[in-house]
Fold this protein.
Amino acid sequence: MLGLKHLRKVTIQRQAVVVFNATARLTHTAGSFSPGNESVSIDPLRMNLRDTKLLKVYSMSTCRNIIAAGGKNGYVSVFRLDQTETPEEEDASFISSKLHTGWISEVKLVELDDGVKVALLTASNDGSISLWNPASVDVERKTPECLFTCVDMHTRGIFSFDVSNRRILTGSKDCTIGLGRIESTGMTNISSFHDHHDGVVKCVRWRNPDEFASGGNDGRIILSDVRMKAPKAVTIESAQDGAVNSIDWSPTDCNYLISSGFDPSVHLWDVRNPKSYSLSFEGHTFKARSSTIHHPRFLSSGSSIVCTGEASNRFSFYCTTTGACRARPQLSSTPSFILPIPHENRNILAAAFTREISFFNVTT
């Protein structure tokens, strides 16, 4: 599907230093491993997708053979992953447009069953959610057809959303969580949760079609079940030292999730034992308090997570069994967003830098 070409393969060894082709983002590494862990193999791919409007990416999503990115100033870019190699000085996006008046908080490519094979959902600090058709694009303006825009789910900006079986969860600066359903002509509001968080809701993620986790500025992670009259099922107090900015469920075991905030630790939680985190991962940032939001992610096997940190200029890979750092490859700059893409028996890691998305083959 990806049609990506490899640079020479590098297997990270203890205290190894490896220098790559100057055109690659991965310049060298000083990875470390604990005994018994498998090595992490990283392959920079000879494919950088450029768009001069992508100054800073806050969210990415893939579906089939396309990838979408959105962020600063309301701009969204969509690229084809199966295109032939594009010169770095050219803009490779087939969608590149200012789709919202506020910054883009989240983008998701979703499959719908009403004639639109793949649709693009976007949410913004302007408080709106829009659905777009990537198959119908004004070629000159690089703007997709807007199928609908919803502005009545929240009174302030939307920080996060997630989709499962056409049901959409939203977390907002108005301190509420919204639940809606995507219809062919618009979005239907189902309910709103006002008592989950005492502050901005930074992240919402479905666990399954009925349960979800949320986190926010109050430092809590709350697991909820929308089938219950009192939907709050589990509350994790002080999940981070300050705000909970990001959460991600394990792709192989729905009892585990990771969380991160402005503090230097990423925590692994078993929601069956919420009194304390199972593991804490540190070393991916040099700062005691970050001023930017980063989103750690599970790799597809669930056995590793990958993190970035403010001004760290590196990836950090951690083992979810032992907590050990498996590798810390050095980068020429710090990506603003990372997205593991499952591909055959490995992950393709997409990393968003200023005006471009770079790709790395990761084998654990």
